[in-house]
Amino acid sequence: MRSIRGVSDSSRPGSRWARRTGLGVVLSVLASLLVVLTGGGTATAAFNPAAFDFWVESPTMGPIKTRILRAADGNTDRVVYALDGMRAREDLSGWEIETNIAEAMAAANINVVMPVGGQSSFYTDWNAPSEFFGIPAGTGSANTGSGATDALSGGPGKSYRYEWETFLTRDLRWALRDRLGFNPNRNGVFGLSMGGSAALTMAAYHPDQFSFAGAFSGYLNISAPGMREAIRLAMIDAGGYNVDSMAPPWGPQWLRMDPFVFAPNLVNNNTRLYIAAASGRPTAMDGPNMGTVNGMALEALALANTRAFQVRMATLGGGNVAYSFPEYGIHAWNNWQDEAYRMLPDLSANIG
User: Fold this and answer.
1) How far apart, in whole angstroms, are the C-alpha atoms of residue 234 and residue 227?
2) What residues are labeled active site?
3) Using one digit for the tens of pLDDT, what is the confidence trace for 289-348?
């Protein structure tokens, strides 16, 4: 293993994690409460006219839009999927709205695939449509985009069952091959927060499709004490979704989506990994506001999860991973954009 930035591997993250276990629980509750109380900031769409809409039918979810940006040299062999975070929107991917990463990757001769939608989905196949107390969706207030008032309102994944893993690894994968000629094998996948955890899940169970996976500020130890309830509160805030509809507590379906549990798959597959989490200390770009406070707490939680995952991989002898632990950075797009740039050479060398 190698460390890219920040704390080196010689700092014995295992002992540090042991001392922080109790702190992790506190942070998980604190971070979730902060999100619920203050919500998230709005963003202005940065539509890229060079990208195009690519619609694919999901038998379960209906027509799903993906934004595609072609590689500058026109190749169809090098492909990466960019996964969004908890507040994924229905018009554009956060990667297109908030960053210029798609353009940078296309310039590096990589075809960029940006699925649109999947708010609070973890890009997994859910157990059931999201509902609370057996009350069907659509009986509450109109979607506000944030807060518990959305719990009984309609929306994606409420009138139907989310089936994102199947969509990404079957429906979209083969449509990209058949309609655009994209290579369906040795692709890359990366994401932030929710999408970071999901990127590792995709690579763990679909190694023929994904030879590379990147996770920025991911929750990579979701069975740790307090994590399920932290995710519960965050999903209620991000659209009013019920974690129990996604996966029953502590059952096989929940454990299947926990990177800490499926880490042996990643080692056995020899998937090239790029794993990053910042310190939670704000940069000069992070203003003095509640959004920064939220981002600090959430990144501290992601860092604790990532350090636990690092220890897990070390015990398994995993030498297929590069880590990045910047001294500054919070749970925010400027941090994830920087990490994507740092990841790009590794991604480029391990796909196609």
Assistant:
1) 10
2) 193, 299, 331
3) 888 888 899 999 999 999 999 999 999 999 999 999 999 999 999 999 999 999 999 999
| 154 in Cβ contact with 129 (< 8 Å) | no
Give the pLDDT score at 143.
Answer: 62
pLDDT classification of 40: cutoffs 50, 70, 90 = very low
How does residue 58 score in pLDDT terms, banded at 50, 70 and 90? very high
Measured CA angle at 165 (ends 163, 166), to 5 deg? 70
Among candidates 200, 246, 242, 243, which has minimal Cα distance to 221? 200
Domain positions in the chain are 2-39+53-119+161-235+250-349
The partner residues of 202 in beta bridges, in order of sequence, read none
Task: Please spell the DSSP secondary structure of 199-217, one letter per residue.
Answer: HHHHHHH-TTTEEEEEEES
β-sheet with 62-69: strand ranges across: 2-6, 321-325, 272-276, 210-216, 187-192, 79-83, 111-115, 62-69, 52-58
Dist CA 321 CA 259 (whole Å)? 14
Domain 2-39+53-119+161-235+250-349 in CATH 3.40.50.1820: yes
